[in-house]
Structures are given as structure tokens and as C-alpha cells.
Amino acid sequence: MELKVGSWSWAAGLPAVMLREKTAKKLGVHEKGRLLIRVPSTNKKEISAVLDVVKRKVSKKEIVVSEEVKKILGVKEGQKVEVEISSPPKSLDLIKKKLKGVVLTKKEVKEIISDIVNNSLSEAEVALFVSAMYQKGMNFDETVFLIDAILSTGNRLHFRNKFVVDKHSIGGIPGNRTTPLVVSICSAAGLTFPKSSSRAITSAAGTADVIETIANVEFSIKKLKKIIEKTNACMVWGGALGMVPADSKIISIEKQLKIDPEAQLLASILSKKLAAGSKYVLIDIPYGSSAKVSLAKGRRLKKKFEDLGKYFGLKMKVVLTDGSNPIGRGVGPILEMKDVIDVLDPSEDGPLDLEDKGAGIFLHVKRGDKIVKKQKILTIYAESKPRLKEALKFYKQNKPVDICHI
Amino acid sequence: MELKVGSWSWAAGLPAVMLREKTAKKLGVHEKGRLLIRVPSTNKKEISAVLDVVKRKVSKKEIVVSEEVKKILGVKEGQKVEVEISSPPKSLDLIKKKLKGVVLTKKEVKEIISDIVNNSLSEAEVALFVSAMYQKGMNFDETVFLIDAILSTGNRLHFRNKFVVDKHSIGGIPGNRTTPLVVSICSAAGLTFPKSSSRAITSAAGTADVIETIANVEFSIKKLKKIIEKTNACMVWGGALGMVPADSKIISIEKQLKIDPEAQLLASILSKKLAAGSKYVLIDIPYGSSAKVSLAKGRRLKKKFEDLGKYFGLKMKVVLTDGSNPIGRGVGPILEMKDVIDVLDPSEDGPLDLEDKGAGIFLHVKRGDKIVKKQKILTIYAESKPRLKEALKFYKQNKPVDICHI
């Protein structure tokens, strides 16, 4: 059936369309059914979308499409689209295979991820995939396939600078705001630091929420490249970039379900680092009673990160840090940003635990000294001041423990 | 925040609301976030709904609510409602408990089911519950709790007639249209037969789809009672009745996921029979390569049905029938209805396999004879003609094998 795109701006959060009740009946679809939308002129782009039914406001020959549909199909108000019933995706059978404990092949993982990106799978179906990964786990190969699939359905950044670095904290510790410290100092010293962060998932504030108290965090990839060219670094919300759309979609379901399968955690972090073009990556795994993982689980996770990092050619350091307490003086976007500024500002006394935690904060230069470009930076990820002192002593006597040699 | 209900008629398939982008930002909710809607005047009714965001068409002080919200809250266009961010439901933690293999208590099962009915759980969250039941199974007690919970959140019918009967085929066999035969003959003989059927789930046509080729199948409960008073029976689509809303919601997710956990299958069928006030129930389990279950699984299922039927005070017969082949001459709503009419019409030759399969078709009266009220009816559920002959022989020599003695 040919229909005309309506004049609305509708952010449904997923590819969705609205039809008048009679039009839906003619197509034989009920609300929450799935439709295939195609642009006749291009004859290649098509998308599967969920149907909402309205009685007024939409005419019989009209189809209202959500922003997501507009973006993917590149259609505008008044344009004509071809609409038909959508058949169920084959990848659902593959998800059920995983649910039964079968190990998936590269092709199978790719089909699931590509259907997630194409929105051929509904929220309930993606939830089943998350549940299957949570229940049955994924082995090393499957996790590699997952990362490859997520990367292949997204965009990748490339930088000329040899030293593209990144860091990631597993999260879950309130006030653990090391990113703004590490990014500021490393970029000042000439490293390229394309850092994207999440909004709050498990804590009161995600790094993106904290940064947003003083700066915009939502940019296009194009704008992002310009920012990094100018400043060496960025601190943005990964969700707005859409660089690894499969990951964003899976995360939005994980957020609803509040479960975080290990394979997806690994794939999510590594795909983002690889997509951002990072070569040197520091992973921080806080452990303890209030952290996401215990020390034993943290150690297992460390091994998995290291193996995957090696496979994908990353120079990676994984550190286990004490995550038994909140860090800093306050929890919540504004208070956490205040802590960050207090640490960075030499005229203020920052919270000691956050200073201790901030990798690269304790340099072999004093606080207040101007950091110059190309200056050597220690990347010790110290758990406490005494530990840092030990590490500095070790550094003087041995080979430096750092993420890259510049 | 107080907002005015907009003038739309919007069938979203679930409780959903639309806000203008600015209003959503003020509330601090993104699209697909959850809002709690309350009617200030009543101060008791409230509902959790999913948010869609629009840029135009909705004013800043307006909230567009889906038909489902209107129905549950009883609000009308122009009325004022109180809106705030909704906190995540506690039952999600219970679902995760089940996913970890913990046996749930009566109170816990009830909380999950009641949150499903209140729409406090999203589609992804209900999918996780389905996945948990599928993965971990549910024991006898949990299945009883599930049936009790589904019944307590719905409506129940009551009939004065002592002989309220029902039948159910597990389904999955194309053309297996026994319902219209059994219902017609049993009701003609004076039994009350409040039969509701599903639309297509696994096959080309559900019984409701087949009946719809010659009659309306969507009625309110009130209208249904009138129909049964007049004709002794009904053949309607269960989805439109909303008698066991928890079951309908779980089924809509199962349909998407194409998985059917055993506990939910048992609960779904039994809750519908109990809600309809049935006392005598025949369950048909087709087994075989193209059926939903193997003979071994069918036998286990039979035992479970019998145990649950006993617990709930039902007079129940469970039969295993050969489901290795499609039944009748055609598959699809119209062809299947034609088969039914050919069987029922004495001037036509109906398909023999369907005649064989139809419980109550082979009566001790000949085809073409007028069936009179209160007449005794054989309810042998025969797998094949030779088997039927054996059964008839057995019937003559022994006590009748029937669902009830009238």
C-alpha cells in the first residue's frame, strides 16, 4: 500500500509508525504489529517498524513515522512510501538457540546484531537475547563475534596521532568521577582522548550527566571530530553519537531489565574503544561490597579484558581498585562536578580519595605546575596515597608502569 | 505536574502517553521512560505509562493518553491529571530471582502478575519473566500460584447450569478444527459451553479466525452472557473478552518471542476454563513430529493437567491424539470453516480425519438424526477410525467414557 508521510515530529524512541484505524485494518495489522516501510524511488532502503493505531489526527492515506524512521529511510513530510506487513525475523530462532545453550557461530551472532540495528527485533525479542546471554554466557569466540558484529554495524573514528588513549571504569561506585581528571590532564599533555561516557545506569549520575552541568555533551560524529582536532579530547554522551548503535539498543533494554550479562559488558566497552580508534586503553574494575563485582569476579573479568584486548591489538592495562565506598564529597551531577573542579584547581583542596583515585593526577610534577605538551605522564592507577608512594618508588627503580611511552 | 488530557484517540496497544518535548524535559524523562499518571479528584486510581515525545501537535500543558490509559483511569478529554516520574517496579527483582532459579512464593507470583496487569512492567520486563519461566520452569505450587494470581486479577463467569463444559486443544496442528463441531453438538444437547479461542499463534489460523469467516467473534463479557443464555454456547475470541488480562498480556509477549513455557501454557488454559466457570473439561494434546509436543512430553503434560485439574476441583479428561499430520482438506480460515460445515451438514461428505478427530461427532445416533436436548453424548476423543470402533465396542461392554453424566 502506498501512503504519504505525515507532517509530525514524533520521537518514539524506536522506529514506529501511526496509521488511522481503517488503514491498519486494510493492511491486516493490529497495534504493536510490525510493518515494512520502503521508499519506492530508492528501492533499497527499508525498515521494519512497530504500529500504533489512531482514530483521528491521521488521514486514511497518511502514515506518521517516528524520527527514527525518518532518519534511517531519509524520508520527509509529504513523500510517498510503500507499506506492507512484516514477517517475523529469522534471528529470533537464533536467540532461542542461544537460550537453549547452543554456542553461536560468527554468522549467527552477526545476524542477531544486524537485526537489532535494523530494528527487526522488538524490545521483547532483544530482552530475550539479553536474558539468553545472561543465562547461558558467551565463550571467548562468541564475545569476539559480538564485538566484531557491533563494530561492523557502526561507525569508526580514525586519528593521525599515534597515541589515541582511553579509559573506562566499570562503574557502580557513586562519585567515582575520574574521567574529567584523566581526560583533562592527558589531553593537555598531547594524547588524543576520544572519551564517550554513559548517563546514569546504576548510580545517581553518569559521567555524561556530570559533565553536562558545565558543558554540552550531545554532538554529532562530525562535530566530535572537530572538537578532538582542536582540543585533543572530548567528554561526550556516547548515546547521542550513535557510533555503535547495536550496543546502544542492547543497553537501553539492559537498563530496563537491570541485568548486565558479562559478554555484553565486555563487548560494550571494547566495541566503543575500538570504534573510537583508541590504541591504549586503561580499564578500571572497582571491586567490593557496593561495587558491581567482587574481587574474585573482578579478577576473572580482568583476565577476559586482557585476552580480548590482546586479540584486538589494543595496548591494555586492567586495574582492580577498591570500590567499597563512595568517592569524593558528594553524589549527584553538580556535587561530583564540584569535586572534579576542586581537584583540578590548584587553589582548592580537592577530596583526597578522588585525588588518589584519579589516574595521572599524581604526576612527577607538583600540583600547580603547568603541564606542557608531550610531557611524560605517569598512569599509575593508585588505590590510596601510601600505595601511590610505593608505586612512585617502584617507578624510579624500575621500568615505568604506563599506558604508552611518549 | 498537572496536565490536561488531549483530544486524541490513540490505540498504542499498551498504556502510553505523549508529551511535548519541553514538558518531558521539565519532568526529567526521555522517550520510552515511564510516568505515573494519577487523577487528582479520585486520588486512588493511578497507572504507569510509557512516554513518547513529540515536537508539535501536543501543547506544553497537554498530555495525550492512549486508549488503554483512558480506560483504566476513566479519564476524558480536557480532564486534568497529575504526572510524575515513575520508579522501577519491585517485581522486576522477583523476576530476576526466578531467573536465578529461586522458587517463588504465592505473594511474589501475585506481585509479578498484578504488575503485569497494571502495566507497571514493560514489554522487555515481561519478556524476561517469560524467559525465566522457560529457563527455570515452575513447580506445582508455583503453577497453582500463577493460576490463582491470573484468576484474581480478572473476571469470572458463573452459570446456573450444573453442566458447564469446555474443551481445549494444545494446538499446533493445521486444520485441527474440532471446536466448532464439539461446541455445536454439545450445546444442542443442553450443555453450557462458554468456549473462547485464540487467533493464530503457531498455525495459519486460530479457531477464532476460522469462526470469524462466518460470524463476529469479538464481544464484551456482558454480551457474551446474553449469547450463552440464549444458545447455551459461544465461540468467541478470548483476547477481546479481557477476562484474564494477565494471561492476554503474557501471551502477546510469548507470541512475539515464539516461546511457550510449560507453566504458562498450563496456567493459561486452566485459568481461562476456571474463569469461564467450566466444571467439566476435556484437554486434547496432539503429539508427534509436527505437533508442539512429543509423545513423552505429552504424557508428562497430561499428568500435570490432571494434577492441576484435581487441585482446582475440575472434572477433567486429558487425551493424547495423533498430531503427526494436518487434519481436514485445507488449511487457513475459510478452507477450515468449509471442512467444519461439511462435517456438520448431513448432505455433505466431510473430511474423514476431521470426523474421526471431532469429539462427540460419532454419537450413538446416526449422522442426520436430530440431536435433542439432554441427549447422552459420547465424548470419545478418537485418534483414528479403527481406534474409534474399538472404543465404541468398549463403550457397549463397559461404563461410558464421557466427560459428564447427564
Could you characterize what this model shows?
2 copies of one chain form a homodimer. Chain A is an alpha/beta fold and 406 residues long. Helix content of chain A is 41%, strand content 16%. Chain A has helices at 21-27, 67-73, 91-99, 106-117, 123-136, 140-152, 179-188, 207-212, 221-231, 238-241, 245-257, 262-275, 295-311, 333-344, 352-357, 385-397, and strands at 2-5, 10-11, 16-20, 34-38, 46-54, 62-65, 80-85, 165-169, 193-197, 233-237, 280-287, 315-322. In chain A, the strands form 3 sheets. Chain A has a 6-stranded mixed barrel with strand order 1-6-3-5-4-7. In chain A, β11 (280-287), α13 and β12 (315-322) form a beta-alpha-beta unit. The radius of gyration of chain A is 24 Å and the shape is globular. Chain A starts with a strand and ends in a 9-residue tail after the last helix. At the A-B interface, β2, β5, α3, α5 and α11 of A face β2, β5, α3, α5 and α11 of B. β2 of chain A pairs antiparallel with β5 of chain B, so a sheet runs across the interface.
Provide the descriptors you would attach to this structure in a database record.
homodimer, 406 residues, alpha/beta, Transferase, Pyrimidine Nucleoside Phosphorylase, Chain A, domain 3, Pyrimidine Nucleoside Phosphorylase, Chain A, domain 2, six-stranded mixed beta barrel, three-stranded parallel β-sheet, 16 helices, globular, disordered C terminus
**What is the CA-atom radius of gyration of chain A, in angstroms?**
24 Å
Shape of chain A: globular
Largest sheet of chain A: 6 strands, mixed, barrel
CATH topology of the largest domain in chain A: Pyrimidine Nucleoside Phosphorylase, Chain A, domain 2
